[in-house]
Amino acid sequence: MANRSVVLKEQGIGALLSDPELYCEFAMVGDRPEAGALEPIAVHDPATGRQVGSIAAFDAAQSAAAVDSAQRAFAVWSELLPQERSAILRRWFELMVEAREDLAIIMSLEQGKPISESRGEIDYAASFVEFYAEETKRPNIESVTSHLPDAEVEIWREPAGVAALITPWNFPSAMITRKAAAALAAGCTCVVHPSSETPFSATALAVLARRAGMPAGAFNVVTGSAPTIVEPWMADPRVRVVSFTGSTEIGRLLYRQSATTVKRLVMELGGHAPFIVFADADLDQAVSEAVKAKFATSGQDCLGANRFFVERGVYERFCDKFAAAADRLSVGPGLDDPDIGPMMNQKAFDKQVEHVEDALAKGGRLLAGGKGHAAGALFFSPTVIADVAADAKIMNEETFGPVAAICPFDSEAEVIARANDTEYGLVAYLHTNNPRRIYRASRALQFGMVAVNRTKVTGAPIPFGGYKQSGIGREGARLGMEAFTEVKYVCRDWR
Ligand code: NAP
Predict the structure, then answer these.
(1) Are 135 and 227 part of one and the same domain?
(2) In angstroms, what is the span from residue 169 Cα to ligand 1's centroid?
(3) What number does the ligand 1 atom closest to the CA of 348 have?
(4) pTM above 0.90, yes or no
(5) Quick one: which of 460, 482, 477, 476 has its CA closest to 268?
(6) Cβ neighbours of residue 345 closer than 8 Å, sequence gap 6 or more
(7) Are residues 281 and 265 in the same domain?
(8) SS3 state of residue 230
(9) Are residues 170 and 194 in the same domain?
(10) pLDDT digits (tens, 9 = 90+) for 151-165
(11) Using 50, 70 and 90 to split pLDDT, how confident is the model at 1?
(12) Does the C-beta of 268 come closer than 6 Å to ligand 1?
């Protein structure tokens, strides 16, 4: 690590890569990298606080010009035969797989993610490109028998147009490909705004897309301050779809902004997952899954469990085992491959402190962690708090970090009501070995995804998304292409 730090400090990220061209500090619009009209934005390694590079900052005019580029490319891309689009997407997938290690290093440096998790995210990100490379070839077989005696009817699916994709820092690659591969497969072209905290994962994907033969302007990565970039897109009637992943707060803002030009919307927003353990569950399995559900991605995960509800009969045993497991987790910089990396920024770190202090002030019992970690300014120790009050902030807001809040429950009806008592509805985790209860609870939980006796549920072929204020629409699966298409009904007279 010492050598790597010196190389990074003296020569920059590119020197750590086997393919230095993957590190790109420019926006990728049209057929070339482009500098911004505004002062570049510094990007920091959250593990050390050191600047690792800077990214081009476009102004509003450049952002609008990126839509021109995508609109021109739409005329080309949407007219390709499905197998031609498929071949380019397939090549993009293969290049991502070949560049896996470099892409993972870029991600760990700008995001802080443990390198094993970064590699896992690259696999996950590539899997969407592979899936939609296949899906674009699948015929649409929606048909209807004519209801008119003298006419023939047909239903067509057509690409909607230019799509604006706005993505967060916690999954800097996968949140882009989950949207872009579906949009491109449907025949749309895209303008992408990645988080300014993790732009280099996005520009690296654009470098690979060009190498894969993507036509100029089909996949544009537009960097700079989010409002400067995104507002022109929201006002532009040529942008027909907005697909956003991020906080519910910014999602609401984009929802309002998109109303003026009535855009199609996909929203993947915040989560506040309940993790429910019944006394009949396999306790050791529940504990080991709880560790994954809470501490993967250092807790900075929309699927992260925030509220642990444990049936009273096994409550103390679960708390002890879970706290002991949290204590065993290693904490450190992403490239050292610990279990837990740094918080993304000071705001994220401060939220951990706020939620812990609030939970303890309202009667919570600290079982593990509880404060910052010696690894560095933005590291927070894996934390477990028992007996957390229902009105504690952590029981009502997304914590987005490695802090777990546990409380006991006494009945199925009580725990389902408490789990559902939130504006969010992304994922719920359920641990029980009672088949009838699995069915009842899975039906009763108001969440887009229910994970039973396991944590990992995601993948390209499944519909990912939330109920209530966790989002609109679904990503992944065939459904993920739907928002990027228009339905056209043609009625031909026979007379
Ligand atoms: P965020 O602050 O909402 O940012 C998301 C994106 O929106 C970034 O590209 C950001 O750019 C941009 N943005 C910020 N302010 C904007 C504005 N005024 N107008 C237009 N765009 C704006 O979210 P985050 O902190 O990056 O990510 C964490 C959140 O994402 C959590 O709530 C998490 O649950 C959610 N998330 C959801 C899913 C899901 O699939 N449901 C997956 C991952 C994350 P800048 O970063 O440059 O400001």
Answers:
(1) yes
(2) 7
(3) 25
(4) yes
(5) 476
(6) 46, 197, 378
(7) no
(8) helix
(9) yes
(10) 999 999 999 999 999
(11) very low
(12) yes
